[in-house]
């Protein structure tokens, strides 16, 4: 599998796993998890909600825990996520995914949510009610091909264009330095 396709699929898995509450090897700015504002997704993770009204979102994400946090290349990442689905999500739901390297847009695509959530052992329809997932993902030792800061946004909609959720993350790929900060 090409590095670009591998990165694209990894980004989609993160967006989808979290939205029905992962992504591959990443480090987030600052090693300590600090609650900065109401955009932080609860739990031990680098995810944030998009700056939009979440009141009418179909999914309420209650918590996302990544172990280890932050994830490390060549290890197994365990994703634990929980939330509430306010109305059944049917085939036809989709995610608008954007990945940028700095200011350069690498990926700008629309993916079939129901097809992609099979990666976290879920299927459509996703019924109304409480939902929890626990998924282990073996992370590759070497990706992406370019070290640096990547910005990911996943905006998820139902087949009727009702907002499901929107998540963002800033991820930094590279090697560890002595203090856990990445050398770029």
UniProtKB/TrEMBL annotation:
<comment type="subunit">
    <text>Monomer.</text>
</comment>
<dbReference type="InterPro" id="IPR039670">
    <property type="entry name" value="NPC2-like"/>
</dbReference>
<dbReference type="Pfam" id="PF02221">
    <property type="entry name" value="E1_DerP2_DerF2"/>
</dbReference>
<keyword id="KW-0813">Transport</keyword>
<protein>
    <recommendedName>
        <fullName>Phosphatidylglycerol/phosphatidylinositol transfer protein</fullName>
    </recommendedName>
</protein>
<dbReference type="InterPro" id="IPR033917">
    <property type="entry name" value="ML_PG-PI_TP"/>
</dbReference>
<dbReference type="GO" id="GO:0032934">
    <property type="term" value="F:sterol binding"/>
</dbReference>
<keyword id="KW-0445">Lipid transport</keyword>
<feature type="signal peptide">
    <location>
        <begin position="1"/>
        <end position="22"/>
    </location>
</feature>
<keyword id="KW-0732">Signal</keyword>
<dbReference type="InterPro" id="IPR003172">
    <property type="entry name" value="ML_dom"/>
</dbReference>
<dbReference type="InterPro" id="IPR014756">
    <property type="entry name" value="Ig_E-set"/>
</dbReference>
<feature type="domain" description="MD-2-related lipid-recognition">
    <location>
        <begin position="47"/>
        <end position="171"/>
    </location>
</feature>
<comment type="function">
    <text>Catalyzes the intermembrane transfer of phosphatidylglycerol and phosphatidylinositol.</text>
</comment>
<comment type="similarity">
    <text>Belongs to the NPC2 family.</text>
</comment>
<dbReference type="GO" id="GO:0032366">
    <property type="term" value="P:intracellular sterol transport"/>
</dbReference>
């Amino acid at each position: 599998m090409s590095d670009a396709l591998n990165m694209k699929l990894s980004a989609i898995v993160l967006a989808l796993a979290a939205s029905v509450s992962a992504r591959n090897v990443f480090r987030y700015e600052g090693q300590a998890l600090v609650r900065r504002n109401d955009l932080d997704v609860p739990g031990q993770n680098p995810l944030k909600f998009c700056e939009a009204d979440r009141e009418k979102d179909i999914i309420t994400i209650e918590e996302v825990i990544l172990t280890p946090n932050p994830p490390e290349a060549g290890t197994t990442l365990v994703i634990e996520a929980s939330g509430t689905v306010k109305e059944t999500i049917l085939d036809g739901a989709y995610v608008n995914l954007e990945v940028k390297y700095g200011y350069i847009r690498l990926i700008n695509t629309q993916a079939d949510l129901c097809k992609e959530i099979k990666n976290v052992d879920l299927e459509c329809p996703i019924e109304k009610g409480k939902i929890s997932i626990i998924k282990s993902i073996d992370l590759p030792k070497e990706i992406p091909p370019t070290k640096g800061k990547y910005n990911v946004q996943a905006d998820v909609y139902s087949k009727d264009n009702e907002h499901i959720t929107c998540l963002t993350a800033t991820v930094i790929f590279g090697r560890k330095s002595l203090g856990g900060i990445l050398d770029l």
